[in-house]
Amino acid sequence: MASSRVGGAERVLSKCQSCIDEGNFYEAHQMYRTLSFRYKGQNKYAEAINLLYEGAYKLLQYNQHTSGADLALLLIDLLNTSLSPVTDDIIEKNYVQARYHLIHSTDGTNCAAMLIEHHVTKGYQSEADLFIAQAVLQYLCLQNKDTAQVVFNTYTKNHPDVEDGPPFYKPLLNFIWFLLLALEGGKVTVFTILCEKYQTSIKRDPTYREYLDRIGQLFFGLPPPKTQPQGMFGNLLQSLMGAGNDDDEDIMQQSTSSSQMSLSQVDLD
Fold it and tell me: Which residue ranges have biased composition labelled Low complexity (predicted)?
């Protein structure tokens, strides 16, 4: 009887693969589900876990996102049900894909945890500020300001290579901190001066200028750059021509919400 059941499972798996090869993804999806429930009912958790992982992986390879995600959710549920230990074999550590999905989420806490782990295991010590800066700028380009704030605060608080702040030792971290504060006031001159003061840090990654162009449009009402060579800074300065000298001249006196420090009390790096 036991050998008969094993042979039946192998035949189902073989048929699943044939369906995938022939493009019958729906049928393959249903067979993976059916067999996984059969394994689960027999308390064969290891077999069910391997099956669901294999099925989700293969379906996602063929861009069957809905079916692949369904099997992935069944896999997560099974891991919780079986109380299986979370090992490196279960988590693939695909930081690139994890980062992509977290940037499109509102889970700033777990995004920060992933960025810290990614940097500590894969990055150079000098790049601790680069990992978080790009994530915050991308969140802002997606108009997800609240999550950008959470991921920045969580990252800087928990990263072993980032000292207590603000202010921070690394200029790029101070720039991101000031930028998040500037979003609250929405004053274009604050944004402009920050970008001018931190040009050296911004130039460390050429994509930062593109992100900041977009952030200027979304949060400060700036028009898109007219020409590529002109870039963000020329566009910002042009937008200020004829704007007059009003209460924006006291920009460096704005209070921070977290530490009651003003921009005038902290030297810009």
Answer: 253-269
CA-to-CA dists, residue 162 to 41, 138, 233, angstroms:
49, 21, 29
Q: Say whether pTM exceeds 0.90.
A: no
Share of the chain above pLDDT 70, in %: 76
**Domain shared by 21 and 152, yes or no:** no
Q: What is the dihedral sign for C-alpha 91, 95, 98, 102?
A: positive
Round to whole Å and give the CA distance between 91 and 89: 6
CA angle 12, 13, 14 (to 5 degrees): 90
What are the tokens at 15?
């048929």
Q: What is the pLDDT of residue 173?
A: 97
Question: Nearest-5° angle of CA 35, CA 40, CA 45?
Answer: 105
Judge if 142 and 102 occupy the same domain.
Answer: yes
Distance CA 223, CA 230 (A): 13
Residue ranges of alpha helices (H) inside the chain are 2-22, 25-41, 45-61, 65-82, 95-103, 108-122, 128-141, 145-158, 171-185, 188-197, 199-202, 207-220, 231-240
Total domains in the chain come to 2
**Type of residue found at 147:** T
Q: Is residue 147 part of a domain?
A: yes
**pLDDT digit string (tens) for 186-240?**
899 999 999 999 999 999 999 999 999 999 999 999 998 876 545 555 555 555 5
**Cβ-contact 116, 102 below 8 angstroms:** no
Looking at residue 241, its pLDDT comes to 46
